[in-house]
Design goal:
The structure holds 2 protein chains of 2 kinds. Chain A is an alpha+beta fold. Chain A is 15% helix and 26% strand. Chain A is built from 3 helices and 7 strands, in the order E-H-E-E-E-E-E-H-H-E. Chain A is globular and about 40 Å long. By secondary structure, chain B is α+β, with helices and mostly antiparallel strands. Chain B folds into 3 domains: 202 residues, 4-Layer Sandwich (Aldehyde Ferredoxin Oxidoreductase,  A, domain 1); 183 residues, Aldehyde Ferredoxin Oxidoreductase Protein, subunit A, domain 2 (Orthogonal Bundle); 146 residues, Aldehyde Ferredoxin Oxidoreductase Protein, subunit A, domain 3 (Orthogonal Bundle). Chain B is globular, with a radius of gyration of 22 Å. The chains are: A alpha+beta, B alpha+beta. At the A-B interface, helix 1, strand 2 and helix 3 of A face helix 5, strand 13, helix 8, strand 14 and strand 15 of B. Strand 2 of chain A pairs antiparallel with strand 13 of chain B, so a sheet runs across the interface.
Chain lengths: 124, 604
């Protein structure tokens, strides 16, 4: 099954993927807050996060992860849209958003517009 | 209205009030938005003779209609005001994410008027607009300001999506060389704007928004952009050189053509500088690309470094830093240049203006005109510590650096040595020697903002030969080239596009993107015409501020002294040969004034 590979080292944080997603799902509307992929910044490193399932309850376990000598809050990397995070929820309607791979066969628009090589569609 | 939000936020700091206004659609049709709209509104509302640091001066931040829509490189937000350094109109280009976020917050433009009683921060978080006290961040560097602001927000997730434009200590102390800093990027051409923001007691503006922007023909827009990304990917300059080193890779090319200045433009050659911007840069810093909003090129290089001299996170030196802060001050050590660049970003100084001023002072010392005791500062060419110390003192107005903090022009005048200041209209010159790149020389002499290359990058044609092969030493066809590039840059800034993609694309390639986004039917001529209108509007403001044909010239060194050595030995600037042709093309009189029929044709 194809999957999207995310390379944090290559991401430049330009957020073109957010706009690509928004334009692809609602024709003619550009709004990163309606995108199913978001890019978060921590220092000089960018983390693209693709929307996963919506959960009603926030998890009770909080994690810190250490990547390359830096400690990050796991909530930053987590794909779930939960009540503790305002992301992946449409601002005006409150509907949760989830990545749908831009239909079948997968041809995600975020991957098509990502020029840095951070997002890549691979087959395994 | 597609692309634009059509709304403008007017903030009066004296009264602590704000109001939301509609932007006149007719004005948007005539000036498109961005720089054009900002310049028009500014010249209508502000008297050209006003004191730049007085409360009557206004400061406008304005995003173009393509910003935030996902248009390729649509990220540019313009800051328009009357510059504290030159007294002419200033229009800085701020990249990064601020402009796009401003659009998502529902505004095309912010107009700042008056002066706050105590330091404040303007925060626009969706529809919550308020003016908060800035006691905690006043006196801090730009990156500290960002951290302090975000930490004080109740919602830590909101902080992640908030973008700031702020001034450092230099702007607070009203140093005329101060710039505004946006998200850690040095904003382009912003010399003198930081001081204006400081004079209003405004430390920072923070924005975050979640509104949508609508696009006229969404399906076509997506297809066009995919196509443009592929085109940029197949052009060697944008896909390889710019992506690997940013603009720093110009250093080697400039050296080969002799354009690279050395020691305040006294010499033009420097053999060791061959790969200072490429391999040496990668070796000195761990480079990491960082892109502005919706930019597939990502030319900004961030770096994490810790060595005895240089510690921290920040922007790796660009060509401007290497040229203006480095070679022009005789310094070739990349660590020192990187650190000087970081000091500029943290303290809120403009690298071209600060570098040019230090280089002028160094020449005065070298020639024995000024001495250490008079300046109370050690300033020698090639001494990195001297530069770093001067920059820090200039920004904080501590010690005795007040004298050089006033700018290179004022300093050189004080010693009766105006000829040793390399700049036009009081603004130090960008690091390109105009003697061996004639088109750029003409642009430097005539530019409304002072000698800044990014308002007409003829370098692409003259040195890089991207679309045309032009001889940089010849004057043939240069007035036409300069006029075309000046108009083109004006319209691209107004739309909100960056200039760099011109290294891989032609201006015509953008037309389908512009038209499908805005639902218009522009041809290239129409847009260039709007660009010309903007250029003339700026010219009219400058004429009101007291600039005339005597200011359209270059420093004597470029007109009288041939380049002493290097690949372009013996070249001299022929700007005065080209000026009559240029005025003619512009429809201006010999005294550099737009003729009545020109203004009528441009509907001004």
């Amino acid at each position: 099954m194809p999957r999207i590979k995310i390379d944090h080292d290559k991401c430049t944080g330009c957020r073109h993927c957010e706009i690509a997603c928004s334009l692809n799902h609602v024709t003619g509307v550009a709004n990163p807050r309606r995108a199913r992929i978001r890019v978060f910044r921590e220092g000089n490193v960018f983390f693209p996060v693709i929307a996963g399932p919506f959960v009603d309850a926030a998890c009770t376990s909080k994690l810190n992860v250490k990547i390359g000598g830096q400690v990050y809050d796991m909530c930053l990397l987590c794909r779930a849209s939960c009540p503790q995070k305002p992301f992946f929820i449409e601002a005006d309607t409150g509907f949760p958003l989830k990545c749908d791979f831009c239909g079948i066969p997968p041809n995600p628009s975020c991957v098509r517009w990502c020029n840095s090589g951070a997002l890549e569609l691979i087959d395994d | 209205m597609y692309g634009c939000t059509g709304r403008c936020l007017r903030v009066n700091l004296s009264e602590g009030k704000h109001s939301v206004e509609e932007i006149d659609p007719e004005l948007l049709g005539k000036f498109v938005g961005g720089r054009g709209l900002g310049v028009k509104v500014f010249s209508d509302e502000v008297d050209p003779k006003t004191d730049p640091l007085g409360p009557e001066n206004k400061l406008i931040f304005v995003s173009g209609p393509l910003v935030g829509t996902g248009a390729v490189t649509g990220a540019s937000c313009n800051a328009v005001t009357k510059s504290a350094l030159s007294g002419a109109i200033a229009c800085a280009k701020m990249r990064g994410h601020f402009g796009a976020e401003l659009k998502f917050a529902g505004f095309d433009m912010i107009i700042i008027e008056g002066k706050a009683e105590s330091p404040v921060i303007l925060s626009i978080l969706d529809d919550k607009i308020n003016i908060r006290p800035a006691f905690e961040s006043w006196g801090r560097t730009t990156s500290e300001t960002e951290v302090v602001f975000k930490r004080n927000l109740e919602d830590k997730w909101a902080g992640r999506e908030t973008y700031l434009v702020s001034i450092g200590p230099a702007g607070e102390k009203l140093v005329p060389l101060a710039n505004v800093i946006n998200d850690g990027f040095l904003c382009v051409g912003g010399a003198g704007i930081g001081a204006v923001m400081g004079s209003k007691n405004l430390k920072a503006i923070a924005v975050k928004g979640s509104h949508s922007l609508s696009i006229a023909d969404g399906d076509r827009f997506v297809r066009v952009i995919t196509n443009l990304i592929n085109k940029l990917n197949s052009a060697p300059l944008t896909s390889q050189s710019m992506r690997a080193w940013g603009s720093a890779f110009f250093t080697g090319i400039c050296y080969q053509k002799g354009v690279l200045p050395y020691k305040n433009f006294q010499a033009a050659a420097f053999a060791e500088s061959k790969d200072i911007g490429t391999e040496a840069l990668s070796n000195a810093f761990a480079l990491r690309s960082s892109g502005c909003f919706a930019c597939p090129v990502a030319c900004i290089k961030k770096t994490d470094v810790s060595n005895p001299l240089f510690r921290g996170k920040g922007m790796a030196p660009t060509y401007l830093a290497i040229g203006a802060l480095g070679l022009n001050c005789g310094i070739t050590d990349l660590t020192t240049i990187g650190m000087a660049n970081m000091i500029c970003a943290e303290m809120g100084l403009d690298p071209i203006a600060a570098g040019g001023t230090v280089a002028t002072a160094m020449e005065l010392v070298e020639k024995g005109i000024a001495d250490r005791d008079a300046l109370k500062l050690e300033l020698r060419f090639g001494q990195g510590e001297d530069l770093l110390q001067a920059l820090t003192l200039m920004a904080t107005k501590k010690g005795h650096a007040k004298r050089i903090g006033k700018g290179g022009d004022a300093l050189a005048k004080e010693y009766g040595q105006s000829k040793r200041f390399m700049g036009v209209k009081g603004m130090p010159m960008a690091p390109f020697d105009p003697r061996c790149i004639q088109g750029m020389g003409l642009h430097f002499a005539t530019c409304n903002y002072g000698p800044h290359h990014l308002y007409a990058y003829t370098f692409f044609e003259e040195v890089l030969n991207v679309h045309e092969e032009l001889d940089p030493w010849s004057t043939e066809g240069k007035p036409e080239l300069v006029k075309r590039y000046q108009d083109m840059t004006a319209i691209m800034d107004s739309l909100g596009l960056c200039n760099w993609p011109l290294m891989g694309l032609k201006f015509n390639n953008f037309l389908p993107m512009i038209n499908s986004c805005l639902g218009t039917d522009y041809r290239a001529e129409d847009l260039l015409r709007i660009g010309e209108r903007i250029w003339n509007q700026e010219k009219l403001f400058n004429m009101g501020a007291g600039f005339d044909h005597t200011h359209d010239t270059l420093p004597g060194r470029f007109l009288n002294e041939p380049i002493p050595d290097g690949p372009a030995k013996g070249q001299i600037s022929k700007v005065h040969e080209m000026l009559p042709k240029y005025y003619d093309l512009r429809g201006w009189s010999k005294r550099s004034q737009p003729l009545p029929e020109t203004l009528k044709a441009l509907e001004l």
